[in-house]
Amino acid sequence: MNQSEREAAKRRAGERAVEAVEDGTVVGLGSGSTAAHAIRALGREVDAGLDVEGVPTSFQAREIAVDAGIPLTTLDEADVTLAIDGADQIAGRDLLKGGGGAHAREKIVDAAADRLLVVADPTKEVDVLDDPVPVEVLPDARTPVADAVRRLGGRPELRRADRKSGPVVSDNGNLILDCEFGAMPAPTGLAADLSALPGVVEHGLFVDFADEVCLGTESDVTVFEP
Ligand SMILES: O=C(CO)[C@H](O)[C@H](O)COP(=O)(O)O
Known about the structure:
This protein is of the alpha/beta class and 226 residues long. The protein is 31% helix and 24% strand. The longest helix has 16 residues, at 3-18. Residues 10, 30-35, 85-88, 97-103, 106 line the site of ribulose-5-phosphate.
């Protein structure tokens, strides 16, 4: 699948997900390019009269939602019925997220939702999660967390926008360590170990999160419950 085919698959997945949204739904608005397609499609439905509110998971999602005319709310004011979010890897109900560094707020909103619908292109589906795990850390905790990740068998790397730039700073003002652990066939233990490290805000292992997956294909969308 080349880049433009992937982009079309993402758009198809995002647009199909919005078909699951009914009047009165409070929608968790995920981050990334696939979720952005869903947010724009939801905006078109709102234009056509659909009555929903959105809870954005990032500055990016918020900007797109405002632009698309989706009324926004917060977790303080509403219960999220359905979250629509992207993923970097999908293995059954387990996800790896955080490619855009938004996984902390994504996990809060996705966990609060009654149901999580994951939208992605087919390259995201894998047998076993094996990409580096994004770990958002308070800036002061960067070195001790990196040391602890090494003790857990991982190889941490501070995320930078490019070689010349400084570190990527998350929407929450924190740093991100991308931590290579190799294949993670049973990520529950590692997820708990990472969560327990002082200074870790959130990591990108979303264990047992996906209720439904919309995978865009070359010409259609496959929808399944993992
Ligand atoms: O977790 C995320 C951001 O933190 C995204 O959902 C994930 O990176 C997928 O992005 P895309 O749909 O652009 O491939």
